[in-house]
Amino acid sequence: MSRVTQRRRVVVSGRVQGVFFRDSCRTEAAARKLAGWVRNCSDGAVEAVFEGEPAALSGMIAWCRVGPPRARVDSVEVSEEPPEGEVGFRVR
């Protein structure tokens, strides 16, 4: 049985820069065997793309709704995209 790969783009708003959100996100994504990337946006949000199995994606999105201890997440926008074959997870 082949593995199902899905892709989600997530934009997290609130106090999410300067609180180790990106590095914590990379650690969480790696633990869930997700590929993709995370970066800061000029408007103060954090944007991330995750590719992997549906259950892992659900867990990662749930983590994004809370973030690391010093973060304050106000909103999380999630959009579905076609998988692009991301390999590894990196901070941009």
Notes on the protein architecture:
The chain has two helices and five strands. It has a five-stranded mixed beta sheet with strand order 4-1-3-2-5, with helices on one face. It has one domain (6-84): Alpha-Beta Plaits (2-Layer Sandwich). It has helices at 21-31, 54-64; strands at 6-15, 35-40, 46-52, 72-81, 89-91. A hairpin with a 5-residue loop joins strand 2 (35-40) and strand 3 (46-52). The protein is an alpha+beta fold. Helices cover 24% and strands 39% of the residues.
What value does the Rg take, in angstroms? Answer: 12 Å
- Please tally the helical runs, counting DSSP H or I stretches of 4 or more residues: 2
Uncertain spans: none
The CATH class is identified as: Alpha Beta
Tally of DSSP β-strands? 5
Structural class: alpha+beta
Strand content: 35-45%
Give the CATH topology. Answer: Alpha-Beta Plaits
The helix-strand sequence is EHEEHEE
Q: What form results from the Cα inertia axes?
A: globular
Mean pLDDT: 95
Largest sheet, if any? Answer: 5 strands, mixed
**What is the first-to-last residue Cα distance?**
33 Å
